[in-house]
Amino acid sequence: QVRLVESGGDLVQAGGSLRLSCAISGTIFRLDVMNWYRQTPGKQRELVATFTSSDTSRYADSVKGRFTISRDSAENTVYLQMNSLKPEDTAVYYCNLERRWPTRGSFWGQGTQVTVSS
Description:
Elements: E1 2-7, E2 11-13, E3 18-26, E4 33-39, E5 46-51, E6 57-59, E7 67-72, E8 77-82, E9 91-99, E10 105-108, E11 112-117
Parallel strand pairs: 2-11
Antiparallel strand pairs: 1-3, 3-8, 4-5, 4-9, 5-6, 7-8, 9-10, 9-11
């Protein structure tokens, strides 16, 4: 089983920065893909950033150039560095592990609140 615990959410002023962390415990496979999603009330969960099994990253257009996803395999932690924050970045941010081998699965953390004031 996999357990994900997010931390680092906070209240920050527009233009500020935050770094979210996702601590991963349990069995991890090299082909696992790590994602950060976010969700605001009444809206669908939005994919923000992906760290692939080939150590590349992808971003939603809304955060490209401002957010950076990274993975520390030694610490089993995934980070989301968020710079130049905007009020529209306000959301609950969720860490997700997407597994394709040996069996398919999707694991979620409990979420961490990010609030950006104008």
